[in-house]
């Protein structure tokens, strides 16, 4: 499965079916995030039901604290 994530093409060996599965695979499931999937901003409650397909585009923004 190939996905476009933050401008990079990422090839995943295993098939992902939802945004939630993708975030778990990337180790981002516990972080506060903003997810854009195919030019649509997702609400957190939609991550488990939003299906993904080969070639989908994502912009993932997570917050980092510091000073």
TrEMBL record:
Q: Which CDD domains match?
A: Ubl_ThiS
Name the SUPFAM superfamilies on file.
MoaD/ThiS
List, alphabetically, the Pfam families matched: ThiS
Q: Which domain of life is it from?
A: Bacteria
Gene3D superfamilies, sorted: 3.10.20.30
Q: Where are the transmembrane segments?
A: none
Under InterPro entries, the record lists: Beta-grasp_dom_sf, Mopterin_synth/thiamin_S_b, Thi_S, ThiS/MoaD-like
- Name of this protein: Sulfur carrier protein ThiS
């Amino acid at each position: 499965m190939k996905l476009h994530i933050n401008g990079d093409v990422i090839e995943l060996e295993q098939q992902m079916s939802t945004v939630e599965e993708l975030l778990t695979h990337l180790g981002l499931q516990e972080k506060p995030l903003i997810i854009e999937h195919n030019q649509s901003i997702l609400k957190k409650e939609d991550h488990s039901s939003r299906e993904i397909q080969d070639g989908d585009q994502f912009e993932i923004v997570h917050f980092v604290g510091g000073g």
